[in-house]
């Protein structure tokens, strides 16, 4: 595997694993630095994950929230992009193994992110897709829309009921946003679409094992969030954990006992675990992983004993001033990416760098149209103003100007028409699958 | 399978198979007619196929050229949409068989379109994808972009050469448009993207068995088209037919003998055959199919002996005044859809309908950016004006206002920046496939 070589003297080699918020920010902040940067990602694009649920619910197209990494970094002369998969990290020899060979590093930045976790039930993955990739989003879109299509075809009332039950497991921001968007679809976007069913008969259930939705938010906002969801028609079930998922039902354990919900569509938003690279790093360095698989980092985001390795984003167990772990959200990852670039730059100049500090400005989660909850320091608010703030902040953070325009245009359109025009069912064999869903007892 | 029933008297049942240009136009033109319309399609959207090559080349997103059929027809009270697959047609009992049952019709409109044809070589389908569906387009996009990624990774000069050879078979409008767009990508969109290859080294070969490109156009426009392609860097090979395709090369037979072109990426634009429903209809009615599988229709687009069955679009072998078959293009299909609705309306009122007449206004094909060829009756022209005309006509014909805006915005953006931001490689296992492409001799 070729590191970038020319006839000049060998420069400091920075290898960055992952082109998400942390890795991409670190790479672009090293523009102009006296280093050669190699950014490795399995995908050829940077993904704006906070809006992935809008792809899953037919509001936006995948390309609206994804920007090709080569396009973003192509003009940065000291940076190359490798579309490759990291299979291992050799911390002794300071090299990264990929399918095509290995890459030497002087500084390694590991920011490979996380996948959803099924808490010891890997068999649930095909039954209840999570929402981390473009493929996840189009798969969820396919399942949700196919369930409505199958209900329209079905001759059987109880089967139709089952098809119109949608269960979302996990009431963090992703689960809440998915539930809100599904409720909007059922009540507004599909309003006039069918002849044999009324889409607003759809029942959207949001299941949460904890005692409140949006548990990372202050309690008053959780309450407001739950009320906003209920106003949209979402049924919220807290203190309910999933015991079993099949292709026809979900069984819950609640305070009142067990309960079976007939459904064909279960979406998973209940938890994440880090990339398997975290485990490999932990084994190689002897460092510990926390319960979610995050690796402990020093206050400068480096690994203890390996100052040349930085771990950022969802993979890092990074504590704030009060000793609480930082959440796995975009602002933390971006802030860490900036810090990593600064640290690398300072070290090359033999300058010290103060410890990483995350300046928590606030949290925002949207709940359907025109509603959101926001925590900005001591200020808690909800409703239209919070929603407008959410809109503005997300729009400004989308990476390319072109996508910002496209998203704005589509949001504006949807706002006034309730239309979600990206509601395409893609993938081969759609009709046979839908026919099977509609009449499960006939071949 | 429920036909739409209420307590009113049974109305005339029109079943339309296919939601393409012909079928969708027929359905929407029957708005307000005293009939019940059922539109059956395997997909849940109407697709604007003329711009599919722009999805395949990363310029547009699938949802920009697709509009959900339920959204388009939801407000039309006398029309229902069935997302189903027609498995057979019983012309004696006047019913259509679908997975979920059967539907009775009084009038049947068959407009199920066509697929690409491999002329007796079905094994070429996986090696050389054609361009008829959204899935085809994203698959072509994946293959083209993956070839560049693999070339960037490859250590071997001849392998890199092979990866940067792109072969397009068939120089009709689709082949010409694909070749032009690929040349644009290689020379402009990817210009600064790579470090180990120069994308403009890519060789784009357009193979045509006939003696000129765009053979359905007047000879002077074929010549201008070929010159425009060559100016973009496309190598045009006429009088060359494909003898063999493998995953590493294409073998051609030319006037000068045989020739092998090493390549990993072959795209098929060489010909189409009608939906298998045409054959079923022919067997059931005793009517003949032409070489391309089109079924002969009477001058009123009905089948001889079966005046209650109309066949439209790519499936119909419909002759113009001079006895020449009409081409399988959108304007013909739209015109036939309008005629079908008029005929059905007139029959219900016992009014005669003059024979179908296609008013051929002209043909347009685009060749990369700022160039096109146009035939408008006696006027032939090419270059920027033809291209602007192409732009305008295509934009005006996209079905929804929202998509018109989105396409316009992206075209404007691309025009000034050469950017094709929808160049996403989607689908699982992208990196392992690319690593395999880059080093085919190692596992």
TrEMBL record, chains A, B:
Keyword annotations: FAD, Flavoprotein, Membrane, NAD, Oxidoreductase, Transit peptide, Transmembrane, Transmembrane helix
Domain FAD/NAD(P)-binding span(s) in chain numbering: 13-337
EC number(s) reported in the record: 1.6.5.9
Protein name: NADH:ubiquinone reductase (non-electrogenic)
Superkingdom in the source lineage: Bacteria
GO molecular function terms noted in the UniProt entry: NADH dehydrogenase (quinone) (non-electrogenic) activity
Organism, scientific name: Bythopirellula goksoeyrii
Residue ranges of every copy of the External alternative NADH-ubiquinone oxidoreductase-like C-terminal domain listed in the record: 360-412
Membrane-spanning residues: 379-399
Reactions that this protein is recorded to catalyse: a quinone + NADH + H(+) = a quinol + NAD(+)
Pfam families xref list: NDH2_C (PF22366), Pyr_redox_2 (PF07992)
Family: Belongs to the NADH dehydrogenase family.
InterPro entries linked to this entry: FAD/NAD-bd_sf, FAD/NAD-binding_dom, NDH-2, NDH2-like_C
